[in-house]
Specification:
By secondary structure, the chain is mainly alpha-helical. Helices cover 80% and strands 0% of the residues. Helix 10 runs antiparallel to helix 11. The longest helix has 22 residues.
Length: 249
């Protein structure tokens, strides 16, 4: 019995010093759980786990695009929560996310994941350094082509994300690139999907564009969309909708 207890104690200590080896797949499974739970700390944990997976398999397509996804969500959450120094966080994490997305694109150019998360990470990077800086670095063309490729490959990917992202791209890119007509076309297409009524994000984006386009009909539609969005469970979008409603009044 003493010998058995001694061996159990030894295995326990060895487990603390050298935990059982996990495979890249194990790390990614754990990362997925944290990602689905959401929240800034969980996104950070997901990044760390994806990086561990990449230490074992640097060319793993899934590990690369999921790493890019986690970097983007961490930056986005930092922005939404207005974490101290969030602009620097967005710039840093967006840049890292772009790197891993590019690796994913190189490995599987005919899958949407890398293209989609490359563009979204450019967006986060732009939030940190400004859109003009991103334009000066030549990221406009790369972002556009990545979104268009994701749309071409699977426009319903990530709950019709390429549709919404392309609409937002054409709505926020500055003159002379801004194209409200294209933005509206993509927003209207997204509006036909079931996802439009499930999240406040698309409602706000469309309402904001309608207010820019002006006209009584557009204003009335925008107001209705914003009133609905102002009841969102997400404080970030709820506050955004309320700010826009005040401008209408």
């Amino acid at each position: 019995m003493k010998r058995l207890l001694l061996w159990c104690g030894l295995f326990f200590l060895l487990g603390l010093i050298h935990p059982l080896d996990l495979t890249a797949e194990d790390y990614l499974s754990k990362a997925d759980v944290l990602y689905e739970q959401g929240g800034i700390e969980n996104y950070k944990g997901a990044i760390d786990l994806c990086l561990k997976a990449l230490e074992q398999s640097p060319d793993d397509y899934e590990a690369n695009w999921k790493c890019a996804r986690a970097y983007r969500e961490y930056g986005e959450e930092a922005k939404r929560q207005a974490v101290e120094g969030w602009k620097k966080i967005c710039a840093s994490y967006g840049k890292e996310g772009m790197k891993y997305a590019q690796r994913a694109i190189k490995q599987e150019p005919d899958k949407p994941d890398g293209h989609y998360y490359y563009a979204l990470n450019v967006g986060i990077y732009s939030d940190g350094v400004s859109v003009l800086t991103a334009l000066a670095e030549g990221l406009k063309g790369k972002t556009q082509s990545s979104l268009e490729k994701a749309y071409e490959l699977d426009k319903m990917y990530n709950e019709a994300g390429p549709m919404l992202a392309l609409g937002r791209f054409w709505a926020v890119v500055p003159w002379p690139y801004k194209d409200k007509k294209k933005a509206l076309e993509f927003y209207r297409e997204y509006q036909t999907t079931r996802y439009f009524n499930e999240k406040a994000e698309g409602e706000i984006y469309l309402a904001e564009l309608l207010l820019e386009l002006k006209g009584k009909g557009n204003k009335e539609e925008a107001k209705a969309l914003l009133e609905k969005a102002s009841q969102s469970d997400e404080k970030y979008f709820r506050d955004w909708a309320k700010r826009l409603l005040k401008k209408i009044e």
